[in-house]
UniProtKB/TrEMBL annotation:
It comes from Nadsonia fulvescens var. elongata DSM 6958. This is ThrRS/AlaRS common domain-containing protein. One of its GO terms (cellular component) is cytoplasm. Belongs to the class-II aminoacyl-tRNA synthetase family. Alax-L subfamily. One of its GO terms (biological process) is alanyl-tRNA aminoacylation. PROSITE patterns: AA_TRNA_LIGASE_II_ALA, PROKAR_LIPOPROTEIN. Keywords: Metal-binding, Zinc.
Length: 451
């Protein structure tokens, strides 16, 4: 017996029938409590936020799109009519053919709610998603299939999270990038129509059902095909019209714009190698373009101020600074090796007269101590032990113990740095997060007396 769905199925949701619907009155079908993980005391694990979703709700219909097709889920707000309570919807997920809404409070089955969409988030998602369809369609003309794609989280996430990318079989040349970007924006300016088509049959050979998720029952669901361009294209440019006749025809569950003009613009950014021969091409579209431009301009102005130069001179100044840093790094390595040689010589002299010696340098790093051990050589450490300690106060520092009787000497060191953590075979390396007041001086005195 086939399952009867009490709610609209994914593929025929209100949000998929009308991407511009911002509010909807509907009823609660079911509400299920979720198992919420207990807050972890471990610093390495993220503690769940206060507003962790605790219930999943199924409605008769929804204007909130469940995550799918590379498009993140919508968010929104519910107004419960009977109780006059407002509840946020954190996310929506697809469970087979059912859309389940994550909320912080339980809802009673049968309750009437007014659902309000977070429109800015939806519009941004549609600009990026429809932009990806258009970009992929143009890349198809270069015999470059879209292997996968990912939508950036958005402006609120900060940093590079604003960027989208798609993976293609090979890297584009600079000329191809210019050409592809030009063609995409030409189609945007042409205001090509975008339609959702539900094919009468899946056996016509034109609908690629292999792209459907494995848990989506195509026999009971609704297969949606997104078409860009075609017969309804009334652009005055015959050349563009011929290029754009049914420019795109792909199965997709996402929400889309009704015209390419609403994408606004699309910019190709940079590429990075991916897997063996593939290329990951980054892009942004819609309102993210001016926002990203403003962010970049603000950062460039900050760099201008830091370098005390004009924008045109930034690259030359950075090249000069890079060369200076490379030269200073080389000089640092030279003088570090000379200092390590000197300290190793002093330690070798001490170890010739005693079984243990200590070197404490507040500014020394673990790399420097390893150089000292290298310069000291193996022979002195066959009969004696050396302790190297660095850092000061709250900044902490490194500790190295090498030679014979390492475990015993480490135990002596830990008396003055009980919170130090480290390990190693033959040579113990550790880190002190903070030196207690006077601890270093007492350690030096104690190790010296052991000699």
């Amino acid at each position: 017996m086939s399952k009867v769905y009490a709610s609209a199925i994914v593929g025929a949701l209100a949000c998929q029938k009308d991407s511009y619907l911002k509010t909807l009155t509907t009823k609660v079908v079911s509400c299920v409590a979720l198992t919420v993980p207990k807050p972890s005391k471990s610093k390495s694990k993220v503690i769940p936020p206060v507003e962790t979703p605790r219930y999943e709700v199924e409605f008769e219909d929804t204007i909130l799109f469940p995550e799918g097709g590379g498009q993140p889920s919508d968010t929104g707000v519910l107004h419960v009519i009977e109780s006059d309570v407002t509840i946020p919807v954190f996310s929506v997920r697809r469970d087979g053919l059912v859309a389940r809404h994550a909320v912080p409070e339980p809802l009673t089955p049968g309750a009437t709610v007014t659902m309000n969409l977070t429109w800015g988030r939806r519009m941004d998602h549609m600009q990026q998603h429809t932009g990806q369809h258009l970009l992929s369609a143009v890349l198809d003309n270069y015999e470059l299939a879209t292997l996968s794609w990912s939508m950036g989280a958005g402006v609120q996430a900060g940093g590079d999270a604003i960027l989208n990318y798609l993976d293609i079989p090979r890297k584009l040349t600079n000329d191809e990038i210019k050409s592809v970007q030009h063609e995409v924006n030409e189609h945007i300016q042409a205001a090509l129509p975008i339609r959702v088509v539900v094919p009468e049959s899946l056996e016509d050979g034109n609908t690629k059902t292999h792209k459907l998720p494995g848990d989506y029952d195509a026999s009971k669901g609704v297969i949606r095909v997104i078409e860009i361009g075609g017969e309804e294209d009334d652009t005055s440019s015959k050349e563009l019209k011929s290029k754009s006749t049914r420019l795109d025809h792909n199965t997709c569950c996402g929400t889309h714009l009704s015209s390419t003009s609403q994408i606004g613009s699309l910019v190709l950014l940079h590429q990075i190698p991916h897997k063996a021969t593939q290329s990951r091409l980054y892009f942004i579209a819609g309102d993210r373009v001016p926002i990203y431009m403003q962010q970049c301009h603000t950062k460039l102005r900050s760099v201008n101020a830091a370098l005390s130069c004009q924008m045109a001179d930034i690259e030359a100044n950075l090249t000069r600074i890079s060369l200076q840093v490379r030269d200073l790094t080389s000089r640092e390595k030279f003088w570090m090796s000379q200092a390590a040689l000197h300290e190793a010589t002093v330690l070798r002299e001490k170890l010739s007269k005693s079984k243990v010696a200590i070197l404490y340098l507040p500014e020394a790093s673990l790399d420097f101590f390893n150089l000292v051990i290298k310069e000291l050589g193996e022979e002195p450490l066959k009969q004696a032990t050396v302790v190297l300690a660095g850092g000061a106060g709250k900044d902490g520092g490194a500790i190295v113990v090498a030679g014979v009787n390492v475990p015993d000497i480490v135990n002596e060191v830990l008396k003055f740095a009980p919170k130090a953590r480290g390990g190693g075979k033959g040579r113990w390396q550790g880190k002190v997060n903070e030196w207690e007041s006077g601890a270093v001086e007492l350690l030096v005195e104690h190790i010296t007396n052991l000699a």
